[in-house]
Amino acid sequence: MSFDALANSLGSIPTDWIILGGLALAAALSAVRSGSERICTLALALPGAVLLLSALPTAAILGPIAKQVSTPVLQAALFGVLLAVMYMLVSRIGLSYNGGSGQTIQAGIAGLAFVVILVTISLATPALGSIWTFGPQVQGVFGETYRLWWLIGGYAALAFSRRT
Fold first, then answer.
1. Contact 39, 112 (CB under 8 A)
2. 56: number of Cβ within 10 Å
3. SS (H, E, C) 16-79
4. CB-hemisphere CA count at 13 Å for 123?
5. Angstrom distance (rounded) from CA 126 to CA 132
6. Structural domain tally of the chain?
7. Which DSSP state fits 89?
8. Do 57 and 107 meet the contact criterion of CB atoms below 8 Å apart?
């Protein structure tokens, strides 16, 4: 197999899958270095941030302020702030995580599970569509039809990866 044939076959991979693979690799390397605590905490904070974002416009004090945020980019920034708040709160809960690092198979599973959860929640949150719009392949795989199963599978894989 020549280098040109390899370059042509790699060039036909959609950008979405390359980005998702890079995110999974970064999450797996983080889990190898310091365990799966950050990945699990972030995966648990994502649904909470979505819930807070949907409930914020009807809140008593912050509701009028949240209604003024009308552009998609500002809504995505608001989601980022809520995600940071939820991350801090979930990390302060004091869940027991494995302290071990360097378990490459478990770290790879945790990285893939985190990306599955991230993509599934990102497709379900309209405010995040302004950051990146996934192609039809990713939307078909992680879309509304299979969303429940991807989330269950992702959280089950995170539970497995942090148990060992």
1. no
2. 18
3. HHHHHHHHHHHHHHHHHHHCCHHHHHHHHHHHHHHHHHHHHHHCCCCHHHHHHCCCHHHHHHHH
4. 23
5. 11
6. 1
7. H
8. no
Q: What is the pTM of this model?
A: 0.84
Q: Token pair for residue 93?
A: 């809960």
Q: With left for phi above 0 and alpha for psi between -120 and 50, is residue 35 left, alpha or beta?
A: left
The token duo for 87 is: 């991350």
d(CA 38, CA 118): 14
Answer whether residue 86 is part of any domain: yes
Residue 8 in any domain: the answer is no
Domain that holds residue 122: 22-91+99-163
pLDDT tens digits, 113-130: 999 999 999 999 888 888
In a domain, 153, yes or no: yes
Give the C-alpha separation, 40 to 93, whole Å. 13
What is the per-residue pLDDT across 7-33, written as a single tens digit (0 to 9) for each?
A: 566 667 888 899 999 999 999 998 888
Q: Which amino acid is at 55?
A: A
Asked whether the beta carbons of 127 and 51 are under 8 A apart, the reply is: no
Q: Is 10 exposed, middle or buried (0-12, 13-18, 19+ CB in 10 A)?
A: exposed
